[in-house]
Design a protein that fits this description.
It contains 6 helices and no strands. The chain is about 65% helix and about 0% strand. The protein has one domain. It has about 170 residues and is mainly alpha-helical.
Length: about 170
């Protein structure tokens, strides 16, 4: 899946109140942190690895949405970026590995939030791809999952479609 295609579909779900740096920057950073939170909850025993793999992958998808919107807000040309359909690395249930990847995604999210340039976006997307793969998902699937979730929310009237917010 081409990231620009994902971005176009994701942008249809962006509301007027969401189209601002005050929403997009902290949202971008928070999603990787939420993946870390799911890891902590699994360690605490709130749920098992299968739940972690799904819930953290959904946070990766939400991070993908914020990345797409922040890139669009900053006018980045995304046509050459592909969301990898193949697994980047083997899935793992090693908490230390997953936690380290989630922390790396937090770091690159913060860098992209601060410096919205292609190098920072690419580094962040690669960290999200690595985390998704380690959780047993590929980025195409994660992109489809988040778009499906947003479509359901639109159908329920919780979010509305939008045009260009610039």
């Amino acid at each position: 899946m081409n990231f620009a295609d994902f971005q176009a579909k994701a942008h249809q779900t962006c509301t007027d109140s969401s189209w601002s740096p005050a929403y997009l920057r902290p949202g971008l950073c928070s999603e990787a942190g939420e993946a870390c939170g799911h890891i902590a909850k699994m360690v605490r025993g709130d749920y098992g690895f299968a739940d972690l793999a799904y819930l953290a992958a959904m946070e990766v998808g939400d991070g993908l949405w914020f990345s797409a919107e922040w890139a669009k807000y900053n006018g980045l040309d995304l046509s050459g970026i592909e969301l990898l359909p193949a697994t980047v690395m083997a899935p793992t249930n090693d908490i230390e590995v997953l936690e380290g990847m989630a922390r790396s995604a937090c770091k690159t999210a913060g860098q992209f939030a601060e410096w919205p340039v292609m190098d920072c976006l690419t580094a962040h997307l690669r960290q999200l791809e690595n985390l998704a793969s380690a959780l047993g998902h590929d980025m195409e699937a994660v992109g489809r999952m988040v778009l499906a979730k947003l479509h359901v929310r639109q159908m329920e009237g919780k979010i509305k479609g939008s045009g260009d917010r610039r």
